[in-house]
Amino acid sequence: MRIPNRIMDLDREFKLDPDISYLNHAAVAPWPARATDAVARFARENAERGAQHYPRWMEVEGQLRENLAQLLNAPSADDIALVKNTSEALSFVAYGLSWSPGDEIIISDQEFPSNSIVWESLADQGVKVRKVSLNGPDCEADIIAAFNERTRLLSISSVQYGTGLRVDLERLGQACRDANVLFCVDAIQSLGALPMDVQAAQIDFTMADGHKWLLGPEGLGVFYVRPELRDQLRLSEYGWHMVDKRGNFDQKSWRIAPSAVRFECGSPNSLAAHALEASTALLLEYGMDRVQAQLFNKVDVLAEALRQIPKLEILSPLDERRRSGILTFRIDGQDSQDLYKALMDERVICANRGGGVRFSPHFYTTESMMGQAVTRLRKRLGTR
């Protein structure tokens, strides 16, 4: 296990252009210096020596699995599959399980399309998707109340992409276990920002891309399956990489790998693995409890500055149970899409989501960067 490094030089790791106010980690994050350096070394080695040191590349991939297992508190790195993206992993679940006509899947009414389209695509198998509102004072109770004898699976985002609403995974996980309902969590808006424990929350399946809060590249993500359920997922992709003893190319018969590698049918994304290994190592060295504390501090500072702007309404929850790294706001009389475009023109990198403009700093974001963003927002609005 990595020991958190309390003296990490964040100025050395994060070298954003000072003219940029980067508040878009809920979309695509900048890389830390160590990830950039890892990719540069990999590219240079590949250009000069090709795959001479391929076994070392596999060691990096193995360390990445260990890093992701730690971030998830998975029982073992054998429970970690490296996938292209969250949507691929969700599809592995949706089309790996056996369904019967009348089976029901519960999702929320705020999900990103990835966590609704895949389940809705099962309609031709007679599977029904029910959406539960998260607008009530106790959204977990509303979700649990929706369970019935036909409920097979609950799939929910740990943090909602639009408003940043965070759900109580442990409470939902226990309810699923009590009701014999499978529990699937899209963790893309929390993994790398908040501590996560798949064992404490009794999560059956979880997945996340590496390019948001994990500070890595697009095209590589993580898929966790509870070990007891691994054999229940029917495979839909086959190739040389997902078999046991995959280095023995002369074997006349084969069997599926017993580990989560079974979900990786072909050649790995070694370049992205080098970057993501470096980024996840940074998070582990810094310590996820410290990452969360620093992130919440940044959100508090940013929220307080935004509250001073007339007619501005913060749409994201800020109470301890519900908050995340996402801060979405709207301004009365202002079209959010127009405001978003104006901010982007002013080099405030943000998003138009959840009925407003979405800011998403990370633990390393400086107060000066956030202050610059608020100043540019005020300038756009004509306020001081």
Description:
This protein has 384 residues and is of the alpha/beta class. It has eleven helices and 13 strands. It has helices at residues 10-13, 33-49, 54-72, 86-94, 114-120, 139-145, 169-179, 270-286, 288-307, 336-345, 367-381, and strands spanning 21-22, 80-83, 104-108, 128-132, 151-157, 182-186, 205-209, 221-225, 312-314, 327-331, 348-349, 351-353, 356-359. Strands 2-8-7-6-5-3-4 form a seven-stranded mixed sheet, sandwiched between helices. A four-stranded antiparallel sheet has the order 9-10-13-12.
CA radius of gyration: 22 Å
What's the rounded overall pLDDT mean? 95
Helices and strands, in order, run as: HEHHEHEHEHEHEEEHHEEHEEEH
Using the alpha-carbon principal axes, give the shape: globular
Largest sheet features: 7 strands, mixed
- Overall helicity: 25-40%
Distance between the termini: 49 Å
Strands of the widest sheet, in order across it, are 2-8-7-6-5-3-4
Strand content: 5-15%
Structural class: alpha/beta
> Which residues form runs of ≥5 with pLDDT under 50?
none
